[in-house]
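Researcher: Last one for today. Full complex below.
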Amino acid sequence: MRPSVDAMERHIQLTGALLIIGLLVEAACLLWARPITFVIFVVVGGFFLLAGVTVFLFSLVSAPHVRD
Amino acid sequence: MPHATTLIIILVLFSASLIGVLVARPSITATRIGKILAFLVLFLLPILCAAMGVSSEMDRSKTTAFCLSCHTMEAYGKSLHIDDPGHLPAAHFQNHRVPAGEACYTCHADYAMFGTLKVKLHGLRHVYVYYFATPPAPQNIKLYQPFNNRECLHCHLGARSFEEGAVHTADPATLPAVKSNTLSCMSSGCHEVVHDIAHLKDAKFWKGPE
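Model: Here's the assembly. Have a good evening.
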């Protein structure tokens, strides 16, 4: 039981790290209205947010089924 | 900075701090409430932040200041202040025939389906050329396609000054040709003077608000 919980927690930490990076990039880009920040927002911020959400969804479907 | 953007930044930072709590204490998610919190914080909030951010960025990318923030576009921005009513973009900008804050986008948007997406993809290409290739000299910048009358007719179609204008109605064939885009609004002898940046140094400028 414990290893699967650890794996889930690792996935959550990885998800969180990716999302925090993506959100910080997004916040930084919102501070400046320049064409380059628009590109960074879409490409870099979008990549980290998409990766974070994907890892989170993957962690849900890959979690072992536990009977009560 | 607009208030909406400030609120989005606050929401983004708030979301990042909540995610930080989950990263520091992932064991929270072992409980039912923790799982609901994780779903909200790791899935819904980031998607909400991204959607609001994209909306904000798209709005900002339509502004005149955004377009003119590239050095290459400076001459085009200056041409909006030429003191000559025959100069088409300047007359539109100075008389607020287009929103002054979104002057470039209003005329250069593609008013067909997916037009906004198309112009934004062109914009991404412009950024690529600006930073990673050699941007053309301002006077060598050309439109991808000849200017389509559809963009003018988006506002002018049905307007009395357009439909009943003396020059437009002098020849009965003119208006149908303009409406079908077979005769360009910018044809020689019509509204042909657009961003005449080659002669900027000889131009007289309007001292209006920036």
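Residues 20-61 of chain A form one domain. Residues 2-31 of chain A form the longest helix (30 residues).
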